[in-house]
Known about the structure:
Blueprint: H1 6-25, H2 27-30, H3 34-55, H4 62-74, H5 97-103, H6 110-119, E1 123-125, E2 131-133, H7 145-167, H8 191-214
Helix pairs in contact: 1-7, 4-5, 5-6
Amino acid sequence: MRHQPASDAKQIEDLLAAVFTLCFLDPSVAGRVLGPIVEKAQRSARAKAERLRSKRQAEVDFDVLGHVIYIWQRTADYLDDEGKPLAIAARGPTPSIQALFRDVKRASYFEKGLRHLIEVKRIKKTADGRYRPCSEVTIVSGLTPDLVKLLNQTINRLVSTVLHNTSQRNPKALRFVERVTTVPDLPAKQVRAFKVFAREQGGALINTMNEWLESRRGIKKARSAKTDQNLTAGLHVFAFVEKNSR
């Protein structure tokens, strides 16, 4: 069995702590014995994990894939006279996808990364065998181990944001953005329009935030207490529709 890195184990511990905190705060659950609930959840999770394990392939590095496309769409060597991304070869010197992976210091990930770019629909092959970026977003069509890991990270980051904001004693302290807007009575016929509107607005926000973050990326340095000042930062946007409980 693969040894779980300490950071991953801590994330899982924090996630479980958040889940149990919700359970103990929920009056409909807190008064019940959690043992049977936990056992049932474990059985369900074990079955799902087995199905996912059978599909496991090389891990997808979503950050690297996004960074490759970002450079492709904004660097002069990869743009035509109208500022549009060029169709480029997979391998070879600049401009090529292989060169892009070298530019982001992940040359060893190129072969797998090329396949992943195709699988998540970030690029498409042209008639002459070259490739062109075709989407501003990564599309994962099925539940994969990588997506489960990303979901785990997202939940932990939401919990961390809430804890950070609520732990600030100074009322004037700068807090992370954490907002939600909901209505309890959206007509079902409006769901499709909501999906389209949410994708447009969310996409615009993410693109703006991505531009800001990408333009301020740091250079990875040797790890030490004095030089390792780079932090992971980002914004996660999602839409939801759910049935009202009766």
